[in-house]
UniProtKB/TrEMBL annotation:
Residues 282-355 form the SPOR domain. Residues 221-235, 245-267 have a biased composition (Low complexity). SMART domains: SEL1. Keywords: Signal. It holds the Pfam family Sel1. The keyword Nuclease does not apply. Residues 1-22 form the signal peptide. The lineage of its organism: Bacteria, Pseudomonadati, Pseudomonadota, Alphaproteobacteria, Sphingomonadales. InterPro entries: ISR_Activator, Sel1-like, SPOR-like_dom, SPOR-like_sf, TPR-like_helical_dom_sf. This is SPOR domain-containing protein. Gene3D superfamilies: Sporulation related repeat, Tetratricopeptide repeat domain. PANTHER family: DAP3-BINDING CELL DEATH ENHANCER 1. It comes from the Bacteria. GO terms for molecular function: peptidoglycan binding.
Length: 355
């Protein structure tokens, strides 16, 4: 009987053992060379044994279909395993994977965690959900705040969506959203410094009291309404983290695996026709400006200006540095109406900048 017990124990140990040659870093090196099969061979036994970095990298491989057959469901499963161990990148990608799989209620708590850290793709996705009332109560100020943060990070699709939002939300909601975006920026800075955990605000940032009812706006349909931007999955895997950091991360960020109740979506209102501008814009010495985009490369901003300057009635460009991006603005408009006409004439997603 003793031999039988020892034999069973040896069998279990053999099944759980990781080959001595398996190494996350070796897999990363193989992946970088384009040798995806070798990378998978390195990561799979480690992932099965519970290594969060290997689980995340294996999820990336299934997401991209490199070295393995493309399988979003398996990618989601491996992202989840790593996310539950506190792997931050896995948490970001797991929330996005759930959203892509139309599991929006399940995605919500993971998106909130990523948003609190300032992850721009999740800010874009959650901001769009909040604006459209998609699986969450509609909340224009918070939607505007999250989209502003994603735009500031240089996510071009967020800048385009923000310009769409500007056409529909009230000045009061825009003002609340701008103030909330400043709070988010401060929270993200604290979260990055590691001084204290950032707690995301509740889904409704405006409270029960609202101004007089407004006509329901047409839902914005940005790039990320049903799909996550292409950058949501980085093709480059991550090297292993140091063991003490992983232990601390697991203790600090392990989420409770509780599925929240599914929230009802608000009905989608009928679209409104957009009136055509009555006259061509004329720029002079006015204080109103328009913003035509935010770019990581100033050269791209200058190229866009070369394309649109002839449509803006003598407006002068401004290249405003905002962290890692350059904002292209055009000024000299006497009123909001003139700036609005300039936006329409530019043919570009556009944001009006008040003096």
């Amino acid at each position: 009987m003793r031999n039988l017990i020892l034999g069973a124990a040896a069998t279990v140990a053999a099944l759980g053992a990781v080959p001595a040659a398996a190494d996350v870093k070796a897999g990363v090196d193989a992946w970088s060379r384009g040798d995806y099969a070798t990378a998978i061979d390195q990561w799979r036994p480690l992932a099965i044994a519970g290594d969060a970095d290997a689980q995340f990298n294996l999820a990336q491989a299934y997401k991209l279909g490199r070295g393995v057959t493309l399988d979003p469901a398996l990618a989601e499963s491996w992202f989840r395993k790593a996310a539950l161990q506190g792997h931050v990148q896995a948490q970001d990608n797991y929330g996005l994977a759930l959203f892509q799989a139309n599991k929006k209620a399940d995605a919500l708590p993971w998106l909130e965690k990523s948003v609190a850290r300032g992850e721009p793709r999740t800010q874009l996705v959650l901001g769009t959900m909040l604006f459209n009332g998609d699986a969450v109560p509609r909340d224009y100020p918070r939607a505007y705040a999250l989209m502003s943060r994603a735009s500031t990070s240089g996510l071009q699709s967020a800048s385009q969506t923000l310009a769409q939002m500007d056409q529909y939300i009230s000045p009061e909601d825009r003002q609340r959203g701008t103030a909330l975006a400043e709070r988010y920026a401060a929270q993200e800075k604290i979260a990055r410094s590691g001084l204290s955990p950032a707690s995301p605000p509740p889904i409704s940032a405006t409270g029960p009291a609202r101004p007089a009812p407004q006509p329901a706006p047409r839902p914005v349909t940005p790039v990320a309404r049903t799909t996550v931007p292409a950058s949501s999955v980085s093709p480059a895997p991550v090297p292993p983290r140091a063991a003490p950091e992983r232990a601390a991360s697991q203790a600090a960020t392990r989420p409770a695996p509780v599925t929240p109740p599914r929230l009802a979506s608000a009905p989608k209102p009928a679209p409104k026709p957009v009136p055509k501008p009555a006259a061509k814009p004329v720029a002079g010495s006015g204080k109103w400006r328009i913003q035509l985009g935010a770019f990581r490369d100033r050269g791209n901003a200058e190229t866009l200006w070369g394309k649109v300057k002839g449509r803006l009635g003598g407006a002068q460009p401004s290249y405003v540095a905002a962290g890692p991006v350059t904002r292209l603005q055009a000024g000299g408009f006497a009123s909001r109406a003139d700036a609005t006409r300039a936006c329409a004439a530019s043919g570009q997603p556009c944001v009006i900048v008040a003096p």
